[in-house]
């Protein structure tokens, strides 16, 4: 998980401090991997699972939390797969192997350098560039290569893609539609800063590339902001955005979770997208 404007990592300097609500989100990511693997390995005769896990805004892999150091999403995702594989191997007569590739993406070279150092210190150095791949770029720049890698791995094309963007416009909805149209079994968990977007719309910036990234044109913005004079306008706009996101991402199944930061008093969505129930 990388917060480009809030969190920063640099070798030789202390890692950033993580907020409680962000730590809870990391817990969700880690737990979901275990639940997912358990769900798709129910066939007792199954001895292997091919999987690709993508962290599109990975950060440096370490945070401060009070007096403790806590792992970021890359280390948590790795450990979640390892735990799931151990549990499965213990219950199958012939063992079990999770053949997982991990792709960690961040556009900041300092973050990638910090994460590489963290992985080496955590004992993952022999897996770098074998099944753990670091990419210094935006997710949008890396996504075509990532999708091709997933598509080449097998017919099932199972992938968990975590897109914990800072705001609401770093990931284009056209990219999400392309992923769902191309791959057989992708699942995407997308962070979407809905309150920040509403504040942006309230400033009447109706024509920007950021809005085009989420397929909001002038008429869409005007329709949403026409609600601003009504009682409960913020909820009404959220509801309008909910329907827009659901329609434009290309996923058949859509589950939003509403997360509120008590420190910033802003809310955002953690959206699960999939083509399978």
Describe this structure in words.
The chain is α/β, with parallel strands linked by helices and 277 residues long. The chain is 41% helix and 22% strand. The protein contains nine helices and nine strands. It has helices spanning 20-39, 73-91, 109-121, 139-152, 173-182, 194-202, 209-213, 218-225, 233-248, and strands at residues 48-55, 62-65, 68-71, 97-106, 132-136, 158-163, 185-192, 253-260, 267-274. It has a seven-stranded mixed beta sheet with strand order 5-4-1-6-7-9-8, sandwiched between helices. Strands 2-3 form a two-stranded antiparallel sheet. Helix 1 (20-39) runs parallel beside helix 2. It is globular. 35% of the residues are buried.
Distance between termini? 26 Å
- H/E element order: HEEEHEHEHEHEHHHHEE
Rg, Cα atoms, Å: 19 Å
The overall average pLDDT, rounded, is 88
What spatial order of strands do you see in the largest sheet? 5-4-1-6-7-9-8
Please work out how many helical segments DSSP would assign. 9
Portion of residues in beta strands equals 15-25%
For this structure, the quaternary state is single chain
Shape: globular
Largest sheet features? 7 strands, mixed
Low-confidence stretches: none
Residue share in helix: 40-55%
Structural class by SSE content: alpha/beta
Q: How many E-type strands?
A: 9
């Amino acid at each position: 998980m990388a917060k480009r404007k809030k969190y920063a990592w640099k070798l030789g300097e202390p890692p950033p401090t993580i907020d409680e609500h962000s730590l809870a989100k990391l817990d969700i990511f880690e737990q979901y991997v275990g639940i997912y693997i358990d769900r798709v390995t129910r066939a007792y005769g199954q001895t292997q699972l091919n999987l690709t896990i993508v962290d599109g805004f990975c950060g440096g892999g370490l945070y401060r939390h009070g007096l403790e150091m806590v792992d970021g999403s890359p280390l948590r995702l790795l450990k979640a797969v390892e735990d799931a594989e151990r549990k499965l191997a213990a219950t199958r007569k012939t063992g079990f192997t999770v053949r997982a590739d991990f792709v960690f993406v961040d556009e900041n070279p300092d973050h990638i350098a910090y994460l590489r150092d963290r992985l080496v210190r955590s004992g993952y150095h022999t897996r770098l560039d074998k099944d753990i791949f670091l990419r210094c770029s935006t997710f949008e720049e890396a996504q075509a290569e990532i999708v091709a890698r997933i598509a080449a791995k097998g017919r099932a094309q199972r992938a968990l893609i975590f897109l914990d963007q800072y705001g609401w416009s770093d990931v284009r909805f056209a990219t999400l539609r392309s992923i769902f149209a191309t791959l057989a079994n992708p699942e995407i968990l997308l962070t979407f800063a809905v309150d920040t977007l509403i504040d942006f719309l309230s400033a009447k910036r109706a024509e920007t590339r950021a809005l085009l990234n989420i397929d909001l044109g002038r008429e869409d913005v005007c329709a949403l902001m026409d609600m601003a004079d009504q009682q409960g306008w913020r909820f009404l706009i959220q509801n309008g955005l909910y329907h827009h996101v659901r329609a434009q991402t290309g996923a058949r199944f859509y589950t939003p979770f509403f997360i509120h930061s008590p420190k910033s008093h802003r809310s955002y969505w953690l959206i699960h997208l999939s083509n399978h129930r």
